[in-house]
Design goal:
Helix content is 57%, strand content 4%. It is mostly helical and 93 residues long. A hairpin with a 4-residue loop joins strand 1 (75-76) and strand 2 (81-82).
Amino acid sequence: LAEGSPELTGVVLPREMSGPERVRKDEALSARLARRLDALVGVRPEDTEELLSAEGTLAFKLDLQVLYLRRVHHFCFYGTRQCKDEWSLQLRC
């Protein structure tokens, strides 16, 4: 990785993608998705709500929820891709 990898790519998004309204919408959508995926795998709703009620800015909450979706459900929020494990997710998203 120190020399670069042809599999790794990046995308530069427009400034509007980090605007307050976009962050608010993404935070709400990621929370809804976390609730749904948690329910599908049997996570207790109170555990999900504990995560979603974390204190902080909307941007912090969004980052936390996106990380949760990646680590727990192997789901890439911005790439809208779910994988069978974290290794597959790391390769694909």
